[in-house]
Amino acid sequence: MSLSDSERALLKDAVGAMIPADAALGVPGADDPAILDDLLASLGRDLAPVQQGLAALAARGFDRLDRDGREVLLNELAKGGDAGLAAIGRVAVSAYYRDGRVLRSIGMEPGAPFPKGYAVEPGDWSLLDTVKTRAPFWRDDRV
Fold first, then answer.
1. Cα–chain center distance at 46
2. Domain ranges of the chain
3. b or e along 32-64 (b: 16 or more beta carbons within 10 Å of the residue's beta carbon)?
4. Which of 40, 80, 84, 139 has the fewest Cβ atoms within 10 Å of its own Cβ atom?
5. How far apart are CA 13 and CA 65, in angstroms?
6. What's the pLDDT tens digit per position in 84-132?
7. CA distance 30 to 16
């Protein structure tokens, strides 16, 4: 199951209103085609709550509102604790901050967080001796 064409259009408008493009900072909005494609590809378990959020927006005439009206409606639903809107926001933010252009704009290198390895300072392993010698305090289901 996936989003219908009308749901995709509404999602595009909703995430674009939540995270608009900023030319001064040189960052795209969440409605950018690449970000939106990533968002749609990664919906997974959030599909049903996102559809509920889109249904709530559609019922309130989101697509007929101007920019200010959309912002007012989104804020109103957010203050009311709308779970569907929270799901839309969560998937939008996740996809947005996976985009290389956005990461570079905040001074981060795109890609995996530790692609070149992560140095861990050597520690004092003797601190674990008491834990190693302690008798097990859990039920062992292997016996």
1. 10
2. 5-111
3. beebbebbbeebeebbebbbbbbebbeebebee
4. 139
5. 11
6. 999 999 999 999 999 999 999 998 888 877 777 767 678 888 888 998 8
7. 5
Question: 19 near 29, Cβ under 8 Å?
Answer: yes
CA distance 2 to 41: 10
Q: Tell me how far apart the terminal alpha carbons of the chain are, to the nearest angstrom.
A: 43
Reading the block at residue 21, the tokens are 């493009």
Distance CA 71, CA 14 (A): 9
User: How much of the chain exceeds pLDDT 90, in percent?
Assistant: 70
Token pair in block for residue 55: 């249904």
What pTM value is reported for the model? 0.76
